[in-house]
Design goal:
alpha/beta, two-stranded antiparallel sheet
Length: 227
């Protein structure tokens, strides 16, 4: 175990709790034409095709993106995804601040109820951009990288992505995964290296690239690993 990790574990519990991560979440709204609403635009609710939830860990810059369901009270997949992302670092207590929209608040109340450890759901002051600055910056990053990914896929495969394709949710998830592993912070380390204290064990491939996977399936009355 690295020296600084041993030192961290030797801290008294109350000191470690003071270091509990702060999470900020904001939303990116996808239009029916496959573009995103920008901050300067007036949002027309009837033209929102999908709502993407974007979260940022304010300590190490890690990012998570997910397509939020229409009924946040029943969006168990997104709730589980947020909890899994957050609990990878084994923190008992986390502080979460999110957009004040009722759907977003309902979603994180679900996270608080489902998470075993302490979850402090903080109020976000109205008309205060600084109070959710990390989440807003993460949204801008996610929009920019998703546009690049879209154009790359369209150019590589000669297709035009439509708004109702599941590819959008996959693009947003891939953006958050890649950002944590390729974007170098001021420390010279990526977000993944900050929280895992090691480089990513997986090779990075471009989104939309054909690849082979190995999966377990049943062949000749037995389970085999096949390509």
């Amino acid at each position: 175990m690295p020296e600084h990790a041993r030192a961290h574990r030797s801290w008294p519990l109350e000191d470690r709790e003071k270091q509990s991560p702060r999470m900020q979440f904001d939303v990116a709204r996808l239009k029916a034409d496959g573009t995103f609403f920008e901050d300067v635009e007036e949002i027309e609710r009837s033209n929102i095709y999908s709502t993407m939830l974007v979260g940022s860990d304010m300590r190490n810059g890690a990012c998570v993106n997910a397509a939020a369901g229409a009924d946040s009270n029943e969006d168990k997949y997104t709730v589980a995804n947020i909890i899994d992302w957050r609990d990878r670092e084994s923190h008992r207590k986390v502080k979460i601040r999110c957009d004040n929209e009722p759907a977003a608040r309902a979603l994180f109340k679900g996270v608080k109820a489902a998470r075993v450890q302490v979850t402090d759901l903080q109020d976000t002051p109205e008309r205060s951009s600084q109070s959710l600055g990390g989440g807003e910056r993460a949204v801008q990053m996610a929009k920019g990288m998703s546009r690049v990914s879209r154009y790359m896929i369209e150019a590589k495969h000669g297709v035009e992505l439509q708004h109702d394709m599941p590819t959008w949710a996959r693009i947003m998830r891939a953006v958050g995964w890649a950002w944590a592993r390729v974007h170098a912070r001021a420390s010279g380390r990526t977000a993944y290296e900050e929280y895992a204290d090691s480089s990513s064990p997986r090779a990075l491939g471009s989104l939309g690239r054909p690849c082979s996977i190995r999966k377990r399936c049943r062949t000749q009355d037995k389970d085999d690993m096949v390509w």
